[in-house]
Fold:
Amino acid sequence: MKDLFDARAELTRLQSRELELFRELSDIRKAVEAQKTVIEELVKARTVSCIDRLPNELLVQICLLTVYALYSTHLSEAERARLASVSRRWRAVILDTPSFWSEISLECYNECPGLLELHLERSHQAPLTVSVYEDHPELDVILFHVNRIRALRYTPPYILDRFASFTFPALEDLHVDLQRNSVDRMLSMFSRAPALKCLWLDGLNECFSTASLTTGYLDNNSLTRLSLTGRASWRVPQDSIHLPALESLALQINDPMSFLEAIVVPKLKHFEFSQVHNEKPIYRAFRGLASKFDNVHHFVLFPPSPILPVRDALYLTVDICQVFRGVRHASIHTEFFPPFSYASLVDRPEHYSSPMSSWTHLESLEIRGFTSIEVRYWDSFMDWFMKRRNFGQQRLHLKLVGEETTCRILPDTPQTLQEYCVSLELYRIPLHSQMYLSASADSLLLSSPLFGQTNLAGLVQTCPAATMRDKLWALIPASRDL
Structure:
């Protein structure tokens, strides 16, 4: 009996061992298959370009951003064809993505209504951006999709007659070049675009009365952005134009003060001003209540017209800047920045003040248009920042934007500016070969179209610019193949 018991016990042990080995073999086989999959993916990745590993959604965004950055306009048929010819995958992505077909410029479809209908079909139900620069027969095709038009840009004012019987329920962005024609024909357009948020009016050339403004021309409860360009005078009382939702205002008119006195904009945060190129400006002190613009924290000042007298350009700018005393973030051109603005006035009176003298709450400043300035101006340039510090004003986040590739600054300029600024960013300004830069406390940034924005504090503490360039080059190895 003992022998039989031992034999059965041995059999049980062997069967248990067999089961363990079988399970171990099964696990090993699974691990082998998993490892084969990993190897296949690695081999496949080595033969596929980086951009082809991106998901379709990200690829679409990169293509659209690149096109708009290069051309700043609509996506033309040639550009779509160029993108679709890269590969089969790109072609499929382009054809199946509505956003590549939702921008329609009618000048690209002259006598080609079939092509226009095909592109509209590919856009599916995506909102449309339509540009019309002359009266095309193909406009009738577009009007079948009027409920989808989100942005409309047109030049000839007489095209409004084609829109007279249509309502634009989805229209949010309207850009019109009046070509110095009357705006009267546009008045009914606003009542038929209830969702309108952004309005650009170019080519103004008339006076506006209170009646025309309050019957639908500018009074609008939904308008958040307004841009006016041209010659216009405003025969309206102070605080008579109410734009309760307006957040951004851009003016390029010869009489800005009258308009600023007339508007009531409690939510205005962003203001841009540029001078009319072919009209002498009307500059005078602001007669309204300046505190109504205390919420305007962002201010952009474009360069003056080259055909206007320097004195007129600077004095008008000073008057405009004094209206907006709560500015915290400003972008200006060098011609409005002391000492460069002073240098333009040979007969400058003693009471002349800088356009920026009223901005006591300034936090960040962008100065555009830097060129190869004479050395004698750099000392005065530094003095302006030193005086701010001596007067107890807060240090600024400063960005300098070069106007041309030959722009040069003195070797010690960035290091000196870092002493007076919270941070310094250089854009399109080449580094001097003997320049030493302190990169502490995240205070220095270099920007360019090639490598974007780079924080130098993570690279070095103090090193020559030549070494800095080598370190920046290491950040963008892909650019070596360009």
